[in-house]
């Protein structure tokens, strides 16, 4: 997994991310930066819980974007 907007963007640019999870309360700028790049690369974008919840689940402070690099995990997330 890649955590954070900058890391997710870099992962998308390097074709290392197969799915993106954006926090439900992600800012418009985050959605533009990450969402557009993911769409251009035909990478699915899922809406997750609020940033504080997403960060807590990952043992981090609030997180607005997570890039999933494991195909099986991404498939499981998209099936939910």
What does this structure look like?
The structure is a single chain. The longest helix is centred in the middle third of the chain and has 13 residues, at 28-40. This protein starts with a strand and ends with a helix. Helix 2 (28-40) links the parallel strand 2 and strand 3. The protein has helices spanning 5-13, 28-40, 51-57, 71-79; strands spanning 2-3, 19-22, 45-47, 65-68. The mean pLDDT is 94. It is α+β, with helices and mostly antiparallel strands and 80 residues long. The chain has one domain: Ribosomal protein L30/S12 (60s Ribosomal Protein L30, Chain: A), CATH 3.30.1330. 48% of the residues lie in helices and 16% in strands. It has a four-stranded mixed β-sheet, with helices on both faces. It is globular, with a radius of gyration of 11 Å. Helix 1 packs parallel to helix 2 (28-40).
Please name the defining characteristics of this protein:
80 residues; alpha+beta; 60s Ribosomal Protein L30, Chain: A; 4 helices; 4 strands
Secondary-structure topology with pairs:
Blueprint: E1 2-3, H1 5-13, E2 19-22, H2 28-40, E3 45-47, H3 51-57, E4 65-68, H4 71-79
Parallel strand pairs: 2-3
Antiparallel strand pairs: 1-4, 2-4
């Amino acid at each position: 997994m890649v955590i954070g907007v900058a890391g997710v963007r870099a992962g998308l640019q390097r074709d290392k991310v197969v799915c993106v999870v954006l926090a439900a309360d992600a800012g418009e700028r985050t959605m533009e930066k990450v969402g557009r790049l993911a769409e251009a690369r035909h990478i699915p974008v899922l809406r997750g819980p609020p940033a504080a919840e997403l960060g807590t689940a990952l043992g981090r402070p609030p997180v607005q974007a997570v890039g999933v690099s494991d195909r099986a995990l991404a498939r499981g997330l998209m099936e939910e």
